[in-house]
Amino acid sequence: MTKDTVQGAMEEEQQAQSKKALKKQQKEAEKAAKKAEKQTKLDFAKDRYGVSAMVQSQQKLDRELVRIQDLTPEKADQLIWVRARVHTSRAKGKQCFLVLRQQQFNVQALVAVGDRASKQMVKFAANITKESIVDVEAVVRKVEMRIESCSQQDVELHVERIFVISQAEPRLPLQLEDAVRPDGEGEEESRATVNQDTKLDNRVIDLRTTTSQAIFRLQSGVCQLFRDTLTNKGFVEIQTPKIISAASEGGANVFTVSYFKTSAYLAQSPQLYKQMCICADFDKVFCVGPVFRAEDSNTHRHLTEFVGLDIEMAFNYHYHEVIDSITDTMVQIFKGLRDNFQTEIQTVNKQFPSEPFKFLEPTLRLEYTEALAMLREAGVQMGDEEDLRTLSDCFSLFVV
After folding, report:
1. Which of 7, 22, 179, 296 falls 20 to 30 Å from 70 in CA-CA distance?
2. CA 177/CA 334 separation, integer angstroms
3. What is the pLDDT of residues 152-179, one digit of tens each?
4. Angle, CA 284 vertex, CA 283 and CA 290 arms, to 5°
5. pLDDT of 187-206, one tens digit each?
6. Three-state secondary structure call for residue 130
7. pTM of the entire predicted model
8. Which residues neighbour 186 within 8 Å (Cβ) at sequence distance 6 or greater?
């Protein structure tokens, strides 16, 4: 056999293999196309899920979004729309259970293969990353057994449409369920907790926790109850300067700031301005605003900046007129929190367990001599002319 004959045979064999490989590729492509076509035909719900385009105010939808906190048995069998974050998801067979969270409230949602959802839709829902924002159209259904893990325990959502509005990253620096775990629980059950520095470095995510949401609402509630109570008593709210030309309560504990070509100071208190208003015949004023104290504190509770709730009032004949206003204001705040913020109180209590707060109505009032006698009975030695020296002295009154 000559060299040319061998080379020709090899070329023919290569051509045959190339044709075979090409034919195989064509068959695979046809097979993939048929499979894709089949899947498209089977995915009858392809228009009921997906990732929405960025919201750019291009259209006005005639759609009412229902708040999760309003999902009650009274809304059973209603078709509603909800916008919420995906808190958790769990896929099982032809079903996917989602927990949708909105601030401090959450509800269970079910995506199941059926007339309104395909297998592809269930798979899509299961792959939505935690903390993504979704729009969900669903039917509200009553449940036979209470859903203890959700705030809305008597209902669940049967999802018919689900669209991702804002997709979160697959890996987050912290998990919300870890961030709300009570101290000590993680050690006992070998479950993860989140360190304080991690929370502060990722404050936006930490603020999404139910505990943080509840704390901020309680703070807002205290301020609102303070304002409402005093306004009803004839007080006027004033806004006082926070940048002043001289220290208002001594020169040692002030923050100095650059003010154009000179120095100024952050206000330590609104006291001067409240007193000016009283002298100007306002009679009763109050102020809600930031207070700055440049105190070198060695404790974990720093008071360099805090929100002060201040009142000032003139009395006619006896300082007990002021005491009456103060004590009643405190009682009204406590009653308002007790009556209107139980959800928030219970939410915080899950992470930071504590005894129910107790108060007296009317408020306990002691004469100074009575207080001294009680302190002495508790073992605190004080002279008749001494002041109540420490906060622990005051606490002793209530312990007794």
Report:
1. 179
2. 30
3. 999 999 999 999 999 999 999 999 999 9
4. 135
5. 555 678 899 999 999 999 99
6. coil
7. 0.81
8. 178, 192, 193
Contact 257, 265 (CB under 8 A): yes
Percent of the chain with pLDDT over 70: 86
Residue 353 structure tokens: 């367990």
* Residues of the chain under the 50 pLDDT cut: 390-393, 395-400
Counting every residue written for the chain, the total comes to 400
C-alpha–C-alpha distance, residues 141 and 160, integer Å: 13
β-bridge mates for residue 97, sequence order: 90, 110
State both tokens at 141: 């259904």
Alpha-carbon distance of 115 to 44, in angstroms, equals 9
Calculate the alpha carbon distances from 99 to 39, 82, 377, 380 in Å. Answer: 28, 12, 55, 54
Q: Is 68-166 CATH 2.40.50.140?
A: yes
Q: 3-class SS at 265? A: strand
Q: Tokens 């002041």 sit at which residue?
A: 387
- For residue 145 the two structure tokens come to 């057994």
Domain ranges of the chain: 68-166, 176-208
> Which long-range contacts link 199-203 to residues 24+ away (Cβ below 8 Å)?
199/174, 201/173, 202/173, 202/174
d(CA 311, CA 229): 12
Buried b (16+ CB within 10 A) or exposed e, 285-302: bbbbbebbbeeeeeeeee
One-letter amino acid of 349: N
**Which DSSP string corresponds to 55-111?**
P-S------PBPPGGG--GGGTT-EEEEEEEEEEEEEETTEEEEEEEETTEEEEEEE
Are the beta carbons of 179 and 199 closer than 8 angstroms?
Answer: yes
